[in-house]
Design brief:
The chain has 155 residues and is α/β, with parallel strands linked by helices. The chain is 43% helix and 18% strand. Strands 1-2-4-3 form a four-stranded mixed sheet. α1 links the parallel β1 and β2 (39-46). The chain is globular and about 40 Å long. One of its GO terms (cellular component) is cytoplasm.
């Protein structure tokens, strides 16, 4: 592992439904593929109730969403260049499983995509405008292809 991709990873299954299929080694592989710098990350799987509560409290939106990224050193200018990205990435199992079925994807494919998406957010990528969205989606597609997954944005 290169120094630039040094990773400290915590995986929490507050909602244990995916614990057997979405294993820590898979998650580490997906996270590592999307990292461009050292990171200290927590990936947490939650149910719809906790997902809704977090989305309501931190984003003012009263519904559970698929992935929430809490990037703790985003925009911090006083940090040294080699300071690790620090973030919590929350995945809502209920939403993730529902979206995978609707999109005719496996839960693993969709989870890999959402983790890559969350890790990119943790590193400052966003999709607030068309140019940012195109850049972020391009990176996601490239990273997922390297991992052996199909383009998540293909029709």
């Amino acid at each position: 592992m290169s120094a630039k991709n040094k990773l400290t990873l915590s995986v929490q299954y507050a909602d244990p439904r995916l614990q057997e299929s979405i294993t820590r080694p898979k998650i580490r592989r997906w996270v590592q593929a999307a990292l461009f710098a050292p990171a200290e990350l927590t990936i947490r799987f939650v149910d719809a109730e906790e997902g809704r509560e977090l989305n309501r409290e931190y984003r003012g939106k009263d519904y559970a969403t698929n992935v929430l990224t809490f990037a703790y050193n985003e925009g911090e200018e006083a940090l040294p260049d080699d300071a690790p990205t620090q973030a919590d990435i929350i995945l809502c199992t209920d939403v993730l499983e529902k979206e995978a079925a609707e999109q005719k994807k496996t839960v693993e494919e969709h989870t890999a995509h959402l983790i890559v998406h969350g890790v990119l957010h943790a590193q400052g990528y966003d999709h607030m405008d068309d140019a940012e969205a195109a850049e972020m989606e391009g990176l996601e597609t490239e990273i997922l292809a390297e991992l052996g997954y199909a383009d998540p944005y293909a029709e």
